[in-house]
Amino acid sequence: MTFSLVARCADTGMFGLAISSSSPAVAARCSFARAGVGAVASQNVTDPGLGPLTLDLMEQGKTAPEAVEAMTAQAKFIEYRQVLAVDTAGRTAIHSGPNSLGIWTQAQAEDVASGGNLLANNGVPQAIVDGFLSASGHIGDRLIAAMRAGLAAGGEAGPVHSAGMKIVDKVSWPVADLRCDWTEGCPIEAIATAWDVYKPQLDAYIQRALDPRVAPSYGVPGDE
Questions:
Q1: Strand order across the 15-21 sheet
Q2: Quick one: pLDDT at residue 41?
Q3: Quick one: how far is CA 118 from the chain centroid?
Q4: Which tens digits make up the pLDDT trace of 105-140?
């Protein structure tokens, strides 16, 4: 019911994740990232607890492959789970249980990993990885390009209705956390539109949190 990618920007150290599904509010259950640690997607008959667990293991010093291996040793019903991870060195790891749904497959490279289930075809994750690696600019732009590439390659077997994108960088909260929890249109394009609006304001939102005294004004009626 889902296709996704986790990624690291080698230039900035930012981590990001993007995901889409026919299920509602997929990003609320499946997307996890921690600045200075990594990014994890936990999907397919989802256990949301596997995201924080895998991040904890990486924060304790395990590589992404080591953390995913340790996670699978601890988790229940792991044969139903699909988990993707990337760490601070750009190492990636994927677990896809044999009970993943429908056509399921995965692809990975340095700094990026993609996986999906109930896919239209088994080439979708590789298209997502290739889309990320061939794109340039901010990690958010590259995540959007990757998801568009996955959708163009066939995406999910049925229509997708929700999507999300999360980015972390240096601070303890996501610097971008954009979601479309349900639409009859294209949720990936809804996220892309939201990113076009949010991206120019991202640094200002961080500055308002760190020191509002020197932050830019809101530029909205009533903030004269």
A1: 105-109, 112-117, 2-8, 15-21, 162-168, 174-180
A2: 98
A3: 18
A4: 999 999 999 999 999 999 999 999 999 999 999 999
The CATH topology of domain 2-214 is Glutamine Phosphoribosylpyrophosphate, subunit 1, domain 1 (3.60.20)
Share of the chain above pLDDT 90, in %: 95
For the chain, the domains span 2-214
Q: Are 222 and 191 in contact (CB under 8 A)?
A: no
pTM above 0.85, yes or no: yes
CA distance 128 to 51: 21
